[in-house]
């Protein structure tokens, strides 16, 4: 019993002969036990009421129990011999045949009216059960696989107690209906019902037992115990030789003693305390044994494939409490008061059920431990000795019960009190033996109530030997969850300032926590490291949070080198661990504080993922990358249970049904309830009047507005795929997108088409006209659904429950800067995972309002501006023109906007035309699409008090991949969350790396290379272009096509675009760097709204491979002056374009999104210089 937890897993060697819980043999064994236990109790409780008028209640109960129990003591050695010497199946079948004979003799004894012969028959039943017991229990581990033992024993316990309850009730009712009397026995017909029931059950049980498969004798050469006392003594010595097994057997014996006394006492309690008739006693004992059944199942479930002895003290505590409650309840009944009796009867049923549950929790782990830890060769003898001890205690119980009632005249309530008091020292003793396991079980049960725990990769934990667990650190509960989920004890490494606290010191000492204190100098630090190394070398599991502190931002912080000092040279593996979803819980720093916040969900989901062992880690960075990769796996696993965006949309709209949710610059404002009503109504109208049933891809031509939001949401809850078409493209490109996506219908409005006439190859539906088709009934039904029908009913009715998270949420066509637009397929999981990561970093609250100025055909506009406010308890407002700075300023002020995303170009507009008063509510401005000049960022901060930060993303990444966290959203100033000049770190559950563009080998920190991103935000692929998809997605890593460096803290600096590099003389020359240099030379700092004046591209060159070409607008500075200024810069000569490589153009070609039209720029350069190249 000194071993607290034994792990039994599928990875252990499985005996092909052993089966699962639904195998024929095990089911037959359960059926045999069910009918046998039912018949035992039915016969006993049929006899006891017959004997009560003759010898009194106490003597009848005690004598019946003693007669039934004594054979277990006298035949213990014989039972063990039979279970070992012969096939256990043979013993079981023989016992069942004997049962038929005994039942016939019992009916004959009643007919004779012989009281003592009846008790002899009860003793014979005891003999049959005594011989049956070891064979029954010994056959369980021979029939079931090891990893099914706990649940198998739980089911056996359930079957036993249910059948016992039914037997108890049936026995009392058989007596009530037949009313046999020993003084005046009637004819056989008077008890024919009882005879048929008793003999019939025995016969059926015998037939079922024949279905148990043949079992090999454990010890076929064992000799018969002609000296039972000697054999019993041998078995006793065998049991006594193993202290854990002996203690366990004592615990089992104590349980049976309590159970026997409780069973007898319930009869007396019901009659004398509650004033019930004999036939009405049944429900009391029935509820008790059903409680034991529930406790048995609960013990099996809580053990979760292990033998969890920590549950035993919890069961003991339950026995104490419920026994004392029964004492107070029974003592409180007012004699003669029917209402009082009825009330306390119901209360007694509750306490008896809980007493049974507690007893099941107490017994099942002990029974399972006894079976699992006993050797197969001696299992029969060990179980026989344990049974001997248990029934010796039962025999004592029968005598003690008689003495308590007859000599001490104790009431049934007082006997329950004594049982409770007797259990107190037993529970304390077990707790002293198993403090770790008990606390572990208590915490596990509490945590399972508050948290929903999911564990993956549990088999990666070594079954034996030392190992170092390396985990991310998200909350104060991380260590507890790791201890709970490990099948072996784990020694945590923790700062001594935490573990030396007097409130937790005893607990950390109990779990052998290794304290570490960096403030005590290098010697103390090395002593802690040596302690950890020694523990691993001794075969223990040690866990370290390698970040060195709890994350204050949700980011995984750089791993410290201490883990390598611990593991290096030990030969033990590192087990990477990722703790997922705890960021945001009350024990994390989410929201800028620990503890004092409401949980966002109940129960709160927690996932723990154990990775494959790392046998020889290169360094801490190697381990960190493996842990990060586990984070990606964890995020991907979330889709198996997380809601898709349309389902979350319904819930969040209902949460804000009377509060503003979205608004736009036309003055339209909608609360959540009206947004949902509009989406449901639009869905209803589109399905009724527009769409065919199989129509999936739907085009949308609307600006960022309330109407655009509602239409996109209506398509999403319809299970269709909204495709927001880029209305800045040419008609031919728009029709190319329509054809690629097989769009049959495009939704737009009359007003939009008037402003932007487009000749489309699709059925154009004007939503203004469609709205007129809505009837009063349509509106009322949608209003009713939105405001009164629960979300779970709506999603079932409209069919959202079975939508796969990997199904398409949208297709977003790229701007086509290097050719024809490509359709990027984004799934529901792409969208929701990107929003989850953004929320983790930005700490969004109901106070937040986002301004959406980017169109919905832009991935940022679709994911962040549209769906993020829909999936969070926040607001959004929209304006269709990002260059209309005056309106943007008014919108920010009116709706108290707190965050928006923009490009540096648009920021210049806001800087010139918006006032600090208008932007006073802003605390987060993120830029992307182009490099943010630091001078512009400082200017913006000086005027508005907000420092814009850069982020990074692409359409293929849904879109956010990295972001800097500004001081306004930074929870801990000591944690680096932003670096000027970078685009930030990869968002949570996303990884970034750089590779050599030629060898594709990973590069170390600081080296420039191609940027690859991996995570749940990586697109499903390009529409109708598997070849291109395979080019850019390699083993889950997306090739961004951008060149970058990643520093030691994980911050990414974009240095250029792969398509915007030229290979000249064997060197890579970045176009963007040259553009920046020339732009700085030619730009006028006083210009109100600087336009794009320079673009660099390249054309083929026969000598150097490529030649740089500079396109420029007319300017007041000569080319020669530009080249002179460039020469002053510290750049290689190969980077400097020649004077004859400059091409003046009327304007620099741009896309509708404001980005350079690289394809057109290249075309102009080739047209101008092709003849020169040829010549």
From TrEMBL:
Pfam families in alphabetical order: Acyltransferase (PF01553), AMP-binding (PF00501), MFS_1 (PF07690)
Keyword Ligase annotated: yes
Family statement: Belongs to the ATP-dependent AMP-binding enzyme family.
Protein name: Bifunctional protein Aas
GO molecular function, one term: transmembrane transporter activity
Transmembrane segments: 21-38, 58-83, 90-110, 116-135, 155-175, 187-210, 245-264, 284-302, 309-330, 342-362, 382-404, 410-431, 850-871
Residue ranges occupied by any Phospholipid/glycerol acyltransferase domain in the UniProt entry: 467-582
Transcription regulation recorded as keyword: no
PANTHER family the record matches: AMP-BINDING DOMAIN-CONTAINING PROTEIN-RELATED (PTHR24096:SF149), LONG-CHAIN-FATTY-ACID--COA LIGASE (PTHR24096)
UniProt keyword terms in alphabetical order: Ligase, Membrane, Transmembrane, Transmembrane helix
């Amino acid at each position: 019993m000194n071993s607290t937890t034994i792990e039994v897993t599928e990875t252990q060697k499985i005996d092909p002969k052993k089966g699962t819980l639904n195998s024929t043999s095990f089911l037959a064994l359960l059926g045999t036990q069910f009918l046998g236990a039912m018949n035992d109790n039915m016969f006993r409780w049929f006899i006891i009421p017959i004997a009560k008028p003759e010898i009194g209640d106490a003597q009848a109960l005690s004598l019946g129990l003693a007669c039934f129990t004594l054979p277990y003591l006298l035949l213990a050695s014989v039972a063990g011999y039979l279970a070992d010497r012969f096939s256990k199946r043979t013993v079981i079948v023989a016992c069942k045949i004997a049962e038929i004979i005994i039942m016939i003799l019992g009916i004959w004894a009643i007919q004779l009216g012989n009281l003592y012969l009846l008790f002899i028959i009860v003793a014979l039943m005891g003999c049959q059960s005594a011989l049956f017991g070891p064979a029954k229990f010994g056959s369980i581990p021979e029939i079931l696989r090891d990893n099914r033992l706990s649940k198998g024993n739980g089911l056996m316990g359930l079957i036993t107690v249910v059948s016992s309850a039914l037997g108890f009730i049936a026995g009392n009712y058989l007596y009530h209906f037949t009313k046999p009397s020993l003084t005046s026995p009637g004819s056989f017909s008077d008890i024919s019902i009882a005879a048929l029931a008793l003999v019939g059950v025995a016969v059926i049980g015998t037939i079922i037992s024949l279905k148990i498969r043949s079992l090999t004798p454990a010890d076929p050469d064992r000799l018969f115990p002609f000296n039972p006392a000697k054999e019993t003594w041998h078995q006793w010595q065998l049991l006594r030789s193993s202290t854990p097994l002996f203690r366990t057997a004592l615990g089992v014996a104590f349980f049976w003693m309590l159970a026997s006394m409780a069973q007898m006492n319930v009869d007396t309690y019901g009659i004398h305390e509650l004033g019930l008739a004999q036939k009405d006693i049944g429900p009391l004992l029935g509820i008790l044994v059903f409680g034991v059944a529930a406790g048995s199942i609960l013990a099996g479930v809580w053990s979760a494939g292990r033998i969890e002895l920590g549950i035993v003290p919890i069961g003991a505590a339950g026995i104490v409490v419920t026994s004392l409650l029964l004492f107070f309840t029974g003592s409180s009944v007012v004699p003669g008061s029917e209402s009082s009796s009825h009330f306390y009867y119901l209360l007694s049923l509750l306490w008896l059920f809980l007493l049974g549950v507690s007893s099941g929790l107490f017994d099942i782990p002990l029974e399972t431990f006894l079976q699992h830890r006993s050797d197969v060769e001696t299992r029969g003898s060990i179980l026989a000795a344990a049974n001997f001890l248990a029934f010796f205690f039962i025999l004592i119980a029968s005598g003690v019960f008689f003495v308590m009632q007859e000599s001490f005249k104790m009431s049934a309530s007082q006997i329950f009190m004594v049982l409770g008091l007797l259990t107190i020292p037993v529970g304390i003793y077990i707790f002293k033996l198993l403090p770790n396991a008990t606390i572990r079980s208590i915490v596990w049960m509490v945590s399972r109530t508050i948290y929903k725990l999911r564990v993956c990769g549990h088999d990666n934990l070594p079954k034996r030997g030392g190992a170092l667990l390396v985990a991310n650190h998200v909350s104060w509960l991380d260590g507890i969850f790791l201890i709970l989920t490990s099948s072996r004890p784990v020694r945590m490494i923790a700062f001594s300032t935490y573990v030396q606290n007097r409130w937790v010191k005893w607990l950390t000492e109990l779990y052998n926590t290794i304290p570490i204190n960096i403030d005590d100098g290098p010697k103390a630090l090395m002593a802690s490291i040596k302690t950890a190394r020694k523990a691993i070398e001794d075969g223990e599991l040690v866990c370290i949070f390698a970040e060195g502190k709890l994350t204050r931002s949700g980011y995984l912080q750089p791993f410290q080198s201490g883990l390598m000092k611990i593991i290096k040279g030990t030969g033990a593996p590192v087990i990477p661990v990722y703790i997922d979803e705890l960021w945001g819980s009350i024990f994390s720093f989410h929201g800028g504080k620990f503890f004092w916040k409401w949980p966002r969900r109940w129960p709160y989901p927690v996932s723990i993922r154990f990775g494959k062992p790392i046998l020889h880690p290169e360094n801490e960075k190697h381990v960190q990358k493996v842990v990060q990769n586990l984070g990606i796996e964890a995020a991907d696993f979330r889709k198996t249970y997380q809601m898709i965006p349309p389902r979350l949309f319904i819930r969040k709209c209902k949460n804000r049904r009377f509060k503003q949710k979205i608004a736009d610059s036309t003055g339209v404002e909608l609360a959540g309830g009206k947004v949902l009503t509009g989406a449901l109504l639009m869905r209803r109208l589109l399905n009724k009047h527009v769409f065919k049933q199989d129509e999936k891809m739907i085009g949308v031509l609307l600006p960022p507005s309330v109407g655009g939001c509602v239409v996109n949401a209506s398509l999403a809850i319809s299970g269709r795929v909204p495709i927001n078409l880029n209305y800045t493209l040419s008609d031919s490109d728009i029709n190319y997108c329509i054809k690629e996506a097989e769009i049959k219908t495009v939704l737009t409005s009359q007003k939009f088409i008037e402003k932007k006439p487009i000749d489309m190859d699709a059925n154009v539906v004007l939503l203004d006209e469609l709205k007129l088709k809505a009837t009063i009934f349509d509106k009322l039904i949608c209003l009713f659904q939105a405001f009164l029908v629960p979300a779970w009913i709506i999603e079932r009715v409209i069919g959202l429950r079975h939508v796969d998270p990997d199904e398409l949420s949208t297709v977003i066509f790229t701007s086509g800067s290097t050719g024809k637009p490509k359709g990027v397929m984004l799934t529901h999981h792409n969208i929701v995972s990107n929003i989850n990561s953004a929320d983790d970093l930005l700490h969004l609250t109901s106070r937040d309002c986002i301004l959406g100025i980017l169109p919905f055909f832009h991935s940022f506009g679709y994911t962040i501006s549209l769906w993020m406010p829909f999936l969070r308890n926040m607001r959004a407002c929209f304006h269709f023109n990002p260059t209309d700075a005056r309106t943007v300023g008014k919108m920010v002020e009116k709706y108290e906007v707190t965050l928006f995303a923009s490009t540096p170009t648009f920021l210049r507009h806001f800087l010139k035309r918006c006032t600090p008063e208008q932007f006073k509510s802003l605390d987060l401005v993120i830029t992307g699409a182009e490099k943010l000049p630091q001078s512009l960022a400082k200017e913006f901060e000086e005027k508005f008090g907000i420092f814009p930060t850069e982020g990074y993303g692409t359409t293929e990444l849904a879109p956010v991949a990295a972001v800097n966290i500004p001081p306004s959203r930074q929870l801990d100033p000591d944690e680096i969350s932003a670096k000027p000049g970078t685009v930030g770190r990869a968002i949570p559950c996303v990884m970034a790396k750089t590779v050599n563009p030629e060898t594709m080998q990973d590069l170390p920190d600081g080296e420039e290379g191609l940027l690859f991103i991996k995570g749940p935000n990586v697109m499903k692929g390009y529409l109708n272009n598997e070849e291109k998809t395979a080019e850019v997605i390699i083993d889950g890593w997306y090739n961004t096509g951008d060149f970058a460096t990643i520093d030691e803290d994980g911050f990414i600096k974009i240095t250029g675009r792969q398509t915007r590099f030229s290979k000249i003389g064997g060197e890579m020359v970045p176009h963007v760097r040259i553009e920046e240099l020339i732009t700085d030379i030619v730009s006028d700092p006083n210009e109100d709204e600087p336009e794009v004046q320079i673009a660099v591209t390249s054309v083929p060159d026969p000598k150097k491979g490529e030649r740089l070409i500079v396109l420029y607008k007319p300017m007041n500075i000569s080319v020669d002056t530009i080249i002179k200024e460039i020469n002053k810069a510290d750049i290689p000569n190969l980077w400097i374009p020649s004077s004859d490589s400059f091409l003046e153009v009327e304007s620099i070609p741009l896309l509708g999104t404001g980005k350079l039209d690289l394809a057109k720029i290249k075309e102009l350069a080739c047209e101008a210089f092709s003849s020169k190249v040829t010549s």
